[in-house]
Amino acid sequence: MGRRIRTALAVASAAAVSGCGLGAGSGTSNVSVTVTRGFGAAQLGAASEARVPGSETVMRMLERSFKVQTRYGGGFVESIAGQAGSSPHLDWFYYVNGVQAPQGAASTAVHGGDRIWWDLHDWSATASVPAVVGSFPEPFVHGVGGRRLPTVLECGSDVALACKRVSGELARTGVPVSTQEFGVGSGNQTLTVLVGTWSTLHGTIVSQLVQAGPSASGVYARFTGGGRGLALLDPKGQVARTLGAGAGLVAATDDRNAGPTWLITGTDPDGVAAAAAALQAARLRDHFALAVEGGGDLPVPVQAGQ
């Protein structure tokens, strides 16, 4: 991250730490930390703990599990496991249950079941990827900030089987789901899952964010030709590959007003069905987003040689 952004994050972290507010508690359980680079392309390590102190923070847990170097008084992670940014636009970012944390790791409390994910990646296209899919079934199971949020499923009229598959997968993870008519809106503090072709999603706030590019949504993909094509972007935000009929996409974003929104979408009903079938922890693991075509999985953003 650039010096100005780094300094802003460091100041915010220092302010939060000085305010503390994280007193000793009874502890929490079943927390994991994953460290990757290149938008999840390479895993550098992983650790899990059956029980951590009640006063645990994301930073302390990271430092206990990995060799970490920090700057700005411990408020900014410089390197993890010897891996550091080697260019002006390569830095560490972290997500808790698939949601980018709004504050520094030194002031973010750890809650039971949290899946903490650190990734070293190029942020030249955007410094903010508000939500990712690679920690599924989070955030549906343990929520955001220690609070489980209600899950609302909205489906297009022509993708009934895909909708049923998504609902069934969420139910298998123990997530209660309420279904409502597409386009009604879910209100604040909910997890919304939209299932439909891109032409059906067209016009929603989320679709407008995605079409505006990674800087608006954090999603490195956009639809073309009225939804008949799916352009996959590289870490610089440039089109690396374009898919056609039968292409699907599993992605997530957050407009910071209502809560994270997941997209199970595609160029046509077959593409939506393929995306719905990909809603599995094993297929989504460590991916920021996932495109599917012809039975093959394509992590997004597209890395060189992919």
General description of the model:
This protein folds into two domains: 3-122, Ferric Hydroxamate Uptake Protein, Chain A, domain 1 (Beta Complex); 151-300, 2-Layer Sandwich (Chitobiase, domain 2). The chain is 22% helix and 34% strand. It contains eight helices and 18 strands. The two termini are 25 Å apart. The model is unreliable at 1-26 (pLDDT under 50).
Overall pLDDT level: 88
Q: Encode the helix/strand succession as letters.
A: HEEHEEEEEEEHEEHHHEEEEEHHEE
Number of strands: 18
List low-confidence stretches: 1-26
CATH 2nd-level architecture of the largest domain: 2-Layer Sandwich
Number of domains: 2
Which features would summarize this protein structure in a list?
306 residues; Ferric Hydroxamate Uptake Protein, Chain A, domain 1; 7-stranded mixed beta sheet; Chitobiase, domain 2; 5-stranded mixed beta sheet; alpha+beta; globular; 2 domains
